[in-house]
């Protein structure tokens, strides 16, 4: 296995600086150590150094455990050593549970003993204050200098069930027993130890064991992306789950996700945290809309990550993936013990975006012999409670419905009953269909308990809440669709682009280009711009309007104004010379009142028959340039109907963006409108992406509105804003 650290990210920090020859041994030491030394071990089971020794022993770790603490001679029946150098044997992994000031000396001592990896529980680093941040940076440099793979600090450690390793601690929490659970090869990475433990418990209740667990803590030297890439290459891992609050290096995370996708391993992420301060300070529509949470969501869709909203949904998605049955689409059939439950489940499915489709006539005919004449055989199917009385009814009806070619998945609302051997009937469905089968709802207060992992082994997923089940099924269906569309290569715009005009390259940071210069920039990349003329006097404006042909628009020409409409700097649909003169006076006065240096006006041809959209770029501190697309004009910030993707992009990414916005039907001919020229739109989006990658000084770009004209007529930029 080649470790991920061979692929350093944009910022090039962390374990990527270590000699590559040491890396593979270090990863092996972290997850498959032969021996573990615990620096700061304690007999006190309320302290991390005491809890971890207990966890290592209770977990059944087979190698030597060496407690180190000069205060004790023995801990939990193990000889305790005064320092690491006194340990008689070699150790691969060190667990550090000492005060922050003593961590780096402890790591140096461990490296001298041949230790390759370390888990640092200690707090008091970057999570505290500036002094802690400085100490954390020292820790990062020490890890690189010593050739140590360091997990943490301020983390809860690592678990590898396959190696019976529980080099972790948690206050008041015992890692779940694995007896009776199914191991589908899940690895969990959590930036919060507490949340990680909750996810472990949720998975256990869903019948699954989590084979590998990492609490990454402050991620001084190794981060979320490092662990993800390791698991992407690990043959025993089939699914990767993660709790994420944020990352420092988007390019590195992108590379790790690409590894997971190439390995065919789905990645499920629960992302929290909204950091919108940078968006509030943005001057463009794009910058205001591309907040941290929105950028992450777009990035996850782009990379095929399944993003979930809470821990229950994460466990449900993991269970569906573990069962190995992926829905071909979002069409579901519901079979319920009662009509009321059928309606409730149908509502939750519809709310989540599933299609409760009518069953085929032949399917309904095949169902009739199994049900009383008054039972509903449409969708949902109402058992009228007979599934709790008649042995085999649940199995037989579900088998019939599963054979319907218009159904992608089954959702069963059924109270497990030993009288009719419900578990046996459900297990029999494994041979009857390869479609996903979800079981929701039990008698209130009663859980299927031991039946859950058994059912999961046979492809039946139990989820207590119907809404959670529906959202999870949608998420997996969308992921399946993404995989089917995967494979598009990253491409350049269809026409060769010229360089950014030299006069613009020399401008200082913070410059807000005038509309005239912004359109010059677009034109240099082959992006069509509305015909217009600059005019310094009312007479020049009238002549320009006559040359262009009425009706025209008149806008104040003043560099430094970002939203001209809001200050009264725009007049539209001007039909004669008098209207143009009046507009000239009004918009220039508005610009002067706003404190701008007014050069005159821009007179442009009015466009008709198109749909106004926005194409823009903002520069995210984590992911770099981010492309945005949505409905344009004055409504973009009100509707906030925008799709985001990080650069570079593929053409398939852009088509996904166009289809993703709620206003998409306006571009495809809704209510008798002509279909827009979507090919031309995507080509312009590619050119904007190229521009952003060519010019690192670009901070924000708005092409708004960009008119999408009827098919065959192309697109045309009416206004543009550029911030350096």
Explain the overall architecture.
With 724 residues, the chain is of the alpha/beta class. The protein has four domains: 4-320, Rossmann fold; 324-484, Rossmann fold (3-Layer(aba) Sandwich), CATH 3.40.50.261; 531-605, 2-Layer Sandwich (Dna Ligase, domain 1), CATH 3.30.1490; 611-723, D-amino Acid Aminotransferase, Chain A, domain 1. Helices cover 37% and strands 19% of the residues. The strands form six sheets. The protein has a seven-stranded mixed beta sheet, sandwiched between helices. Strands 15, 16, 17, 18, 19 and 20 form a six-stranded parallel beta sheet that branches. Strand 15 (331-336), helix 12 and strand 16 form a beta-alpha-beta unit. The protein is flat. The two termini are 43 Å apart. Mean pLDDT is 90; it is low at 1-19, 277-290 and 488-494.
Short key terms for the protein model shown above:
724 residues; alpha/beta; Rossmann fold; Dna Ligase, domain 1; 4 domains; 7-stranded mixed sheet; 6-stranded parallel sheet; 25 helices; 30 strands; 19% strand; flat; disordered N terminus
Quaternary form: single chain
Structural class, judged by helices and strands?
alpha/beta
- CATH-assigned fold name of the largest domain: Rossmann fold
**Cα-atom Rg, whole angstroms?**
31 Å
Query: Strands of the biggest beta sheet: in what spatial order?
Result: 9-8-11-10-12-13-14
Q: Cα distance, first to last residue?
A: 43 Å
Mean pLDDT: 90
Strand content: 15-25%
- The count of β-strands is 30
The backbone outline, from C-alpha atoms, is flat
Low-confidence stretches: 1-19, 277-290, 488-494
Provide the number of structural domains.
4
